[in-house]
Amino acid sequence: MSVVDLSQGLGLALRQLEITLRQPRGPRRILGPVSLAVPPSEVVTVMGPSGCGKSTLLAAICGTLPPALAVSGRVLLDGEDITTRPPEARHVGILFQDDLLFPHLSVAGNLAFGLPAEVRGRRERRQRVEAALAEADMAGFAERDPATLSGGQRARVALLRTLLSEPRALLLDEPFAKLDVALRARFRAFVFDHARARGLPTLLVTHDPQDAVDAGGPCLQIDADGSLPGSSLSGDRPAGRDNRPGGLS
Amino acid sequence: MSGGPRLAGGDFLRFVPALTLVLFLAPVAAGLVGTWLPAFGYLPVLGGERFTLAPWIHLLAQPGLGESLRLTLLSGLLSTLVTFALVVLLLAACHGGRLLMALHSAMAPLIAVPHAAVALGLAFLIAPSGWLVRLVSPWATGWNLPPDVATVQDPNALALILGLVVKELPFLLLATLAALGQVRADERLAVARSLGYGPVTAWVKAVLPAVYPQIRLPVYAVLAYALSVVDMALILGPLTPPTLAVQVLRWFNDPDLSLRFTAAAGASLQLLVVAGGIALWRLGEIVAGRLGRGWIAGGARGGNARFLRAAAAGPVLLLVTLAVLGLVALALWSVTRRWRYPDALPSAFALETWARQAPEAGAVAGTTLAVGLIAAGIALVLALACLENEQRRGLTLGSRALWLLYTPLLVPQVAFLFGAQVLAIQTRIDATWLAVVWSHLLFVVPYVFLTLGDPYRALDARYARAALCLGARPARVFWQVKLPMLLQPVLLAAAVGFAVSVTQYLPTLFAGGGRFATLTTEAVGLATGGDRRVVAVYAFLQALLPLVAFVGALTLPHLLLRPRHPALDRAPA
User: Fold this and answer.
1) Looking at beta carbons, which residues of chain A come within 8 Å of B469?
2) What is the pTM of this model?
3) ipTM higher than 0.95?
4) B132 in A contact zone (CB under 8 Å)
5) Strand order from edge to edge, sheet including A28-38
């Protein structure tokens, strides 16, 4: 799977990441330890039953774990250790099951929220927003209220918003689960195409096997108790040197 | 190692909860100490240099103290019991019904109306020469003169009890409705009904035991308030002798300074009365719980209670009607030129009372408005900062913190305001804006916090997470995501805070040193023996300000937030 040599450090890598719940009687393990590597342009899928901690894993990567949860191990993005950075400084984009478009902002307002402040000038920012909408076949939707959009349109705007924030990795927390079947396949392709086009390392958590098939990348399983007993890509494909995806270490 | 780095930049937030607690608990604690010391003879500025039981002995020797206590306990306990029973009856009989929703929306504005305005409106209605008698006289009653019965300030404080029930019913009902959601009442009710229980029995057996612990503190607050109320008691309660709190206030205001010691002892007794009242109620809870468990275990299903369901809403509807009619009476009197008994309506209307009172009432309303806005603003900032801190640090508010929050609502005002006033004089801040706003904050902060807490915590946390992951700093997430999404509850909390400030009578009196006139102090002050038309102007303004604030809080978000685009311009997906 690893087209890019991970020793160069490109992409997203988890090293011995373990999540525990702080308790008076000593910490309780929630998930892990997990080590895996997601090279640029590749989609790695994590599957598991609900409640196994899939979303917790993503929260640990993007830095939004509740304070009651502690994380050990390291999260590396393009070779940098981002484990202790606040979420806004990690450059890790995430899409949730719900689009979470801000209801008080227009479509353009939502997209501009994602656009970094370094993009200066009202016209420049506006152009970036318009261009993104055009790319998604949604030109002319800038001033619309998100509430007036269809489910598919909202999902697309949510992805555009994340991409405009110029992430260096993309996390997908079952973003296709709530779309109907026909729409799901189209949006899935839309997301994967955009992620690949930007060379984003993408980590998808899901319980829908079709997601994993379409993602086309390696797939690993989390047990109900949060352990990762090997992965579906055991041995047959060489993984990065010390970062065998899904490898239990 | 997680969590920590996210706090960068928001460190000052860490100190806000402690600051808030100190800000509104310290004066209460200091005020209690400052009242108990003189109660035992120690108040050097008035020559009390050593501890003695003389104030208590003098207090207990006061004629009428026993009667004052009887009136206090009777009005406090009975009004709370009736209010609680009405809430339970109404909810058990009408759970989820359309009638309940209608009553709910009719009552919500009543919460905003200050106690004094409700009391004055009621007095204008039920007095022997009040509107109700006028409406049916003389054609139905034959009374060509007002009947010679004390319907207001009656010797058994029944008018006061009525006023308290009218005013506290909306508060307790809304608190209970909010709590019902937390205990998943609908499911409990459905289960009990499917087991064959009648609707009312199902509610009392399956929902009430779960919801009561949630509303225990609001019930205690209602009880504590009813046992120590001053402004309503001055208007509706008996005055010879009055309830304990009013009597204590009289001693505090007596030109004879030596009575301050008696007053301090009386204020301390007031605290004991409230503590005893709450203890008594708690005892009642335990007994009711014991008996209730046996009753529930008995398995009686209860009937369909058709009569009860039809009858339950009656008393509540009547009380709401009385409150609304009272406000109408205030409005009518304020524009009356001549309204002779027993005319049903004024024979001549005029705006001259308004015109004559305009300069002074305008200034007083301005003061009320300013104090209210400042207090509500400060309380809102503190509450938002505490809640944001709570969320960023992943804290959960324990039940102990909730008790702290309720402290100023449980401790009778008259029991600590004197001590706080002495303290204010010593620090030379008495009779200043600072003192008045601060004294209001003691009560505004808890209410704002209680109003805002639930919606703030209920906001889907993933919005904030999504915003953070888009690269927004926590401060930007707060200002651009949370605050706009919570605009409605935030404004409502501000309106509640404003209304609570407008309502304050005793704190304004004590902290303002008698030199700070608000609509409430004027309305209550004028109530005894004043011109009804002038009283009506002040009371009407007093009711109007909070109502305007509430209307503003409900309508502003629609004007401020971007207008929704009509579905018409919706392009095909």
Assistant:
1) 62-64, 87-88, 90, 92-94, 162, 165, 167
2) 0.85
3) no
4) no
5) A28-38, A12-21, A69-77, A80-81
